[in-house]
Amino acid sequence: MANTFKGTVTKGLGKGSFFVSQEYYAQAFREKFGFTPFPGTLNLLLGKIPDFGRFRRITIPGRPQGQDTHSRGSVDCYHASIQGIPSALIRPHKSIHPEVIIELIAPVDLKNELDLKDGDEVTVELG
């Protein structure tokens, strides 16, 4: 199927949980995707980067957080599912991940829910 791709579960930087938990983003994810995300992301290493231009992109705009903290950057998001669990593929504009690593958010801890370990291959459906 053209709207699916495979990725390998990989360790993240540990920063996704902080940003996903921020009320600004959590509220935007609830409004756009209908769920409050689990405070963390599932990171996948891709062999080939999908053509994201073929899918409906939802951009959550960035905004300043405050004078003594970092700004909140914009995030491009796409409706997705992994093994039937509704999720969102997120691509933060300020990410330090290389393009071949993507992040997924969901209302559950995907790694635990699907019993995934680093190195496992999964199929993600976009759209």
Architecture overview:
The protein has 127 residues and is α+β, with helices and mostly antiparallel strands. It starts with a strand and ends with a strand. It has helices at 16-21, 23-33, 110-113; strands at residues 4-10, 42-46, 58-60, 75-82, 85-92, 101-105, 121-126. Strands 1-2-6-5-4-7 form a six-stranded antiparallel beta barrel. The relative contact order is 0.29. Helix content is 17%, strand content 33%. The protein has one domain (4-126): Elongation Factor Tu (Ef-tu), domain 3 (Beta Barrel), CATH 2.40.30. It contains three helices and seven strands, in the order βααβββββαβ.
What's the gist of this structure?
This protein is α+β, with helices and mostly antiparallel strands and 127 residues long. It is 17% helix and 33% strand.
Named CATH topology: Elongation Factor Tu (Ef-tu), domain 3
Low-confidence stretches: none
User: How are the strands of the largest sheet arranged?
Assistant: 1-2-6-5-4-7
Oligomer: single chain
Tell me the radius of gyration: 14 Å
Kindly state the mean pLDDT as a whole number?
A: 86
Q: Helix and strand succession? A: EHHEEEEEHE
- Strands, total number: 7
How does the helix and strand content classify structurally?
alpha+beta
Keywords:
Elongation Factor Tu (Ef-tu), domain 3, 6-stranded antiparallel beta barrel, 127 residues, alpha+beta
Helix/strand layout:
Layout: E1 4-10, H1 16-21, H2 23-33, E2 42-46, E3 58-60, E4 75-82, E5 85-92, E6 101-105, H3 110-113, E7 121-126
Antiparallel strand pairs: 1-2, 1-7, 2-6, 3-4, 4-5, 4-7, 5-6
